[in-house]
Amino acid sequence: MSEIVRLTLVSHAMTDAMAAGRFPLDEALNALGHRQLDGLDLGPADTALCGPETRTRETAELLGLSALVDARLADLDHGQWRGLNLDSVQPGELTRWLTEPDSCPHGGESVVALIARVRGWLADISRTPGRIVAITHPAVIRAVILNALDAPPKSFWRIDIAPASCTALHHRGMVWTLRSAVTGQ
């Protein structure tokens, strides 16, 4: 019998960019983000990981985790759109980005590239038995879910990941299984 990997993905808590509908910069959590994490108990973890951004590292710290930074858990690179409001982006470019997963009109990373990056990360951690907690971004969690379900990239925007929410998966043998998705406060 193969060993089980239990993966809990935690979406970082609220930031001012999220609240304002802006593409993210490397910002800290806001006051609401701090409150969202109150009372969230993830239990023990054999391995704790987080993305390199301030918001993921701060979420991990507030949860009492000594998380190792893993660059593969970084947010989707929004390129030249970083810090912009949605209404500051050309409507045609935004539509193309939202409907064509292999496009990246912002000059950053496409959804397809993110999904591939996350696929590699999942393959690596599937060989690490035990309980892993990873603090990351909604986009990364969407990509994990698509990989686990072998769903097409066009489904990316149909998954809603709330701030400070947890998504659980497990791996035994050859495949990842979505165990549950639990929304935070």
Automatic annotation (TrEMBL):
InterPro entries: His_Pase_superF_clade-1, His_PPase_superfam. It holds the Pfam family His_Phos_1. Signal peptide: none annotated. SUPFAM superfamilies: Phosphoglycerate mutase-like. This is Histidine phosphatase family protein.
